[in-house]
Amino acid sequence: MFYIPVILGSTRRGGRQSPKVARFVAERMKRTNRIKTEILDLAEYNFPIMEERLRFNEDPPPGLREFGEKIDRADSIVIVSPEYNNGYPGVLKNALDYLLPEYKRKPFGIVTVSAGGFGGLNCLAQLRLVAIGMGAFPIPAALPVSSVQSSFDLEGNPTDESYEKRATSFIDELLWFTEAIATQKAKEGQGG
């Protein structure tokens, strides 16, 4: 079974819509019976502005070591992020920047959320570049969610059935890349 945490990249205090989508994705990942997952909500971690990477920090902020350990042992990572001002939230970049070797050669699935009609495509493009810069592999499939307020109910169930099919394709591709990388790492003696 693969461990693939979902990083929830928003800490807005009121009206956050991304948690609905994160719950939906995590639940669909669990249904494969091949993935163990959990949501790593950055609002719960509340990391201060990064002054030093975790590996060089003798007195890390509360929760950072636990967050880093989860990312380090992950086989892949999924990010669910809203698009803010044509980009991703600064709090997400801050959390990602605390780590670096923990991301090496890990597939990244990116799910973007927007209130409008484009589903966060600018955020998606930028996060793919960030993942590559960290030594990770953003998978080709994406799951952009448009008009999130009306596309999902409060429990994270889609009101538009097309999201079920799109999520299945996204998770299938995430699993393909996760298994391929795990197989290669095992061949190289890096563990899986």
Defining key terms:
192 residues; alpha/beta; Rossmann fold; five-stranded parallel beta sheet; two-stranded parallel sheet; 7 strands; globular
List the helices and strands and how they pair.
Layout: E1 2-3, E2 6-8, H1 18-30, E3 35-36, E4 39-41, H2 42-45, H3 64-73, E5 77-82, H4 90-97, E6 107-113, H5 121-133, E7 137-145, H6 148-151, H7 162-187
Explained architecture:
With 192 residues, this protein is of the alpha/beta class. The protein has a single domain, classed as Rossmann fold. It is built from seven helices and seven strands. It has a five-stranded parallel beta sheet with strand order 4-2-5-6-7, sandwiched between helices. It has a two-stranded parallel ribbon with strand order 1-3. The longest helix has 26 residues, at 162-187. The relative contact order is 0.18.
At a glance:
By secondary structure, the protein is of the alpha/beta class. It has helices at residues 18-30, 42-45, 64-73, 90-97, 121-133, 148-151, 162-187; strands at 2-3, 6-8, 35-36, 39-41, 77-82, 107-113, 137-145. The chain has seven helices and seven strands, in the order E-E-H-E-E-H-H-E-H-E-H-E-H-H.
CATH architecture call: 3-Layer(aba) Sandwich
Number of domains: 1
How much of the sequence lies in strands comes to 15-25%
Quickly name the level 1 CATH class: Alpha Beta
Radius of gyration: 16 Å
CATH topology: Rossmann fold
**Helix percent band:** 40-55%
Give the strand tally: 7
Can you list the strand order of the major beta sheet?
4-2-5-6-7
Mean pLDDT: 93
Number of helices: 7
Tell me the span between the first and last alpha carbons: 10 Å
Overall 3D shape: globular
Extract low-pLDDT stretches.
none
